[in-house]
Each structure stands twice: as structure tokens, then as C-alpha cells.
Amino acid sequence: MHTTNKEGKYSYFEAGEGTPIIILHGLMGGLSNFDGVAKYFPKEGYKVVIPELPIYTQSILKTNVKAFAKWVKDFITFMGFERVILLGNSLGGHIALYHTKMYPEKMLGLIITGSSGLYESAMGDSYPRRGDYDYIKKKAEDVFYDPAVATKEIVDEVFQTANDRLKLIKTLTIAKSAIRHNMAADLPKMHVPTCIIWGKNDKVTPPEVAEEFHSLLPNSELYWIDKCGHAAMMEHPDEFNRLMHEWLKKASI
């Protein structure tokens, strides 16, 4: 994606100076391409940091939402940040939410888009058809409102993941963990300022999931993007940046 810094056990991209925005990608790295955010926010006085989450590299016992949230906290400490803004898509949103629950003192603000955490069929429910490229292609296209966004490169990456036995086992482990770590009971107690940006046409985490997040999170704002699927920051990067920046200004973060 970009030049990545490697230090100790961490690999991460960073750009800009200022208030840190840490971006947490989803299960499929290629589907969570935050180039738009990484280019826009450093010019606006923020430091954008995108760590590579250890989704497929931790032991199976640490392949769960809670362990990933702890990993994020350790990464924040390692980077020397006092408090951060977390932005997460899909599984990354769920990890960001869980981190917010566990370590509210680390949080300036939270932005979620197409996040899991409330809706159980958000992940991995139909993975096992491994060898079927057309099926995987259709699944990848379903992530977006405009199927053309699912380039051959993206489909190939998903296909490769689905055909890697260890990655498949970990994907299913994470899917089970996401269901186990349902956040419905926790959200009303979470008062960190939260921005919810959602695609109106998200088939993976449908619009009613965003409505539910908004109703349960006491300090949240909800923004919609039309003609947009599960990865808003990829499909409509300019609109996504505009809404996110508008919210950051409004929340004085």
C-alpha cells in the first residue's frame, strides 16, 4: 500500500503530524483500503497511522476481538500516544469498539463504518466454498454498491485467503469471536464521541445495523452515503473524508 515502518513486532504506515488517527482495517486487507483518508487528513493537522493487524499471525488463542483490542492498546503505548482517534471498518470497527469499551481513557473519538459488533452474519458465514473463484468474485462484488470496485486484484486476494487453510481456520475463528463479543449490552455505557458513517446500500452490515449503533451509543452522530456499500472509505473517499472532517470539527477533536 505505502512504505511501511517495521519496528519490533509492529508494521505500520504513518503520515503527517498532529492528533493521531489510528485506522483499523477489516478481515480482508485489500477491502479496507484507506488511501483517501491517508492522503487527506495529514494536510488537516492529523497524523494518520495504519498498523497491520495481526489477524493471521497470532496464535489461535489470541485470534479474537478482545485480544486484538488489547494489541491495539499496546500499539498505542508503543507509539507513545496519550489519546487517539480510532477509525475502523468491518472487523476493524468491532476491534475499535471493543478497545473503546476496555480503554476509554485512551480515546479522543471513535469513527466506525460498516462495523461488526451487533450483526452476526457480518462475517465468514459463507466462506467454505473455497475453490470456486466465481463465487468468491460475487462475494467480493457484494461488498460494494458498484461491483466494478472489486478489481481482479481484490478478488484474487480474497480467493487466496479463502484457499489458505490456516487463514480460513482463523477467519472462521474470528467470525465466531465476533458473534461471542456482541456489543449490544456495552454500547449504552460507552460515552466516547462516536461518528457512524454508513453506506445506504451496505449488504454486509445493512443500514438498520447503523441505526441500532446510533440508538445504543449515547454520544453518536450518524451520517449516510448514498449508492455505497460496505467499504464507504473506498467507494466514496471524498464524501467519506468530508463527513468525517465535518464531525471532527463539530466534536472539536
Automatic annotation (TrEMBL):
Keyword Translocase appears in the UniProt entry: no
Q: Which UniProt keywords apply?
A: Hydrolase
Mention any one GO cellular component term assigned to this protein in its UniProt record.
Answer: membrane
One MF term from GO for this chain?
A: hydrolase activity
Q: Which InterPro entries does this entry report, sorted A to Z? A: AB_hydrolase_1 (IPR000073), AB_hydrolase_fold (IPR029058), AB_hydrolase_sf (IPR050266), Hydrolase_4 (IPR022742)
What sequence ranges are listed for the domain Serine aminopeptidase S33? 21-236
Q: Does the keyword Hydrolase apply?
A: yes
Q: Which Pfam families match?
A: Hydrolase_4
The name under which this protein is listed is 2-hydroxy-6-oxo-6-phenylhexa-2,4-dienoate hydrolase
